[in-house]
Amino acid sequence: MGRCRPEPHDAFGMMLVFQRSEISAMSVLRGFLWLLVFLMLGQALVRLFHIPMPSGVIGMLLLTLWFGYRGGMNADVVRISQPLIAMLALLIMPGVVEIFFVADQFADQWTAILTALIVGTLLSVLSSLLLMRRYLPQSTAESDLRSADHE
Amino acid sequence: MSDWLGRLAQLPQQWFESPIAAITLTLGAYFIGIRLFKLMRRPSWCPPMLIAAIMIAVIIALLPIGVDDYNRGASWLMLLLGPATVALAVPLYQQLPQIRALWKPILMTLPLSATLAACYAVIIAAVMGAPENVLASLAPKSVTSPIALSLAEELGGSRALLMGALLTTGVTAIFGVEWLSRILQIRDPRLIGLALGINGHALGTVRAFEINSVAGAFASLGMSLTGAFTAVVLPLVWHLFY
């Protein structure tokens, strides 16, 4: 009692474990198939209508619309999307490696690049914080705190 | 004996003829990077991805292979970026109720913030005399990586430079949000989360989840909307100028 997973030391339990992992593997593959189909739909739209946008983004928007139309998310897609999104850092690492080898190609531009990135990012953080403080309705706790500050 | 040594010397070259070696190296470095990151007590200025990338770069430099040999194999991993971009539909759809409840303030602030995030950097770099391909690599700097990569490709930027820009931007945005929100006395986790997601893409979102779950949810909202908005608008605007 209270044990939710069969111990794999008896033949029957082993079979259950296999069956279960087979079900989840199938679900992951089905979810992957969904993603690939929507990616291809995105590629098709990009080619057909000369949309100047990445096909993955079109696929993402189409899939969001599809979820909205169906009134919920497909469980298979949710299951595959979690590990895929968690893997993003791994997937872009090869690109980061390349920067160490092409660095001298941009040798005379590093000051411009670094200034643009660091000053630009600090400025955009500042303006988005100010903008949102102006327009985002304050939660009650926050406004209480604020009025207390003013007194 | 010298025959055997000769074969040993050729081994790295032969390994990297198939993509297996590059994928193994990337995966191995990734896990070692995460472990070192934890040992260094999670410094916000040095994400695990950077540690792993430095390790891979050192190994490539030591072995008698070029970065092109590595890239040829690693491109098999990057092939997964396409489906991973489509998978971002899941967090986007999950945030729809939040978007619906706050659509007015979001409409007032987010497109402008996302535009400014790209404009400041491009204008500063252009004023300092950077050429077009550098500008194209800097423009998508605040967008989540899979979208940013395909954007840079679309605009004709350098992939490697964009990756460096993404990393620098993420680290600067985390520092900037924490520093400036303290100066401006902003404590609302929704606001801090949104600012982290809009300016610091995935790196900022990870940081927001460390603050609390409200900040995390708003950061992923900011990240997905900035990604979608920039992906739609940036190519259109860019082709007006170049």
Verbal overview:
The complex is a heterodimer of chains A (151) and B (242). Chain A is an all-alpha fold and 151 residues long. Chain A has 2 domains: 1-86, no CATH class; 102-151, no CATH class. Helices cover 79% and strands 0% of the residues of chain A. Chain A has 6 helices and no strands. The longest helix of chain A is centred in the first third of the chain and has 39 residues, at 11-49. The N and C termini of chain A lie far apart (61 Å). Chain B has 2 domains: 2-79, no CATH class; 86-241, no CATH class. Chain B has 242 residues and is mostly helical. The model of chain B has no long low-confidence stretch (mean pLDDT 87). At the A-B interface, helix 1, helix 2, helix 3, helix 4 and helix 5 of A face helix 2, helix 3, helix 4, helix 5 and helix 6 of B.
TL;DR of this structure?
The complex is a heterodimer of chains A (151) and B (242). With 151 residues, chain A is an all-alpha fold.
